[in-house]
UniProtKB/TrEMBL annotation:
This is DUF2569 domain-containing protein. The lineage of its organism: Bacteria, Pseudomonadati, Pseudomonadota, Gammaproteobacteria, Enterobacterales. It comes from Enterobacter agglomerans (Erwinia herbicola). The chain crosses the membrane at residues 6-26. Keywords: Membrane, Transmembrane, Transmembrane helix.
Amino acid sequence: MNEQVAAPRIGGWLLLPLAWLIMTLLTTV
């Protein structure tokens, strides 16, 4: 696996939980 290909995939999977966490924090606060 090339790092250039793996990096965007890992970033995408990390972005989903982060976006969900931010939305939950905004709704609670």
